[in-house]
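ok trying again, last paste got cut off:
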Amino acid sequence: MSLSIRNQLPGTVVGVVPGAAMAVVKVRLDGGQQITSAITLEAVEDLDLVVGTAVRALIKATEISLATGPVAGLSIRNHIPGTVAHVTTDVAMSAVKVTVQGAELTAAITKDAVNDLGIVAGSAVTALIKSTEVSLATVG
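nice, full thing came through this time. structure:
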């Protein structure tokens, strides 16, 4: 199956904490970072997610925010440091390619945000991703 989601990061499940309706799934990405996904308990069961399951973390580019300075005091669970590789800007929006350990992410943010934050190739950034915006797919 092909998907329009640009960000497809391979990893392995390292923890599953089930709740009444939702579960928190922790994934160690192939680059070494840990990412958290909050998905339905039904999805965990349907995908048979257990520690050791190979997965892909799927994140829409529009669900990634970028920070150029220190990040603290946020409820956002996923903070992935990286370096801007390339910025493509049109009239209103920008696609920012960010190199992270072991992968590349694409963030779709406004042109104004790129300008206000001074984001250019070589900029150090942190990709911020809410755990509820990380979907999981099994591999194989």
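cool. The chain is about 10% helix and 55% strand. The longest helix spans residues 41-47.
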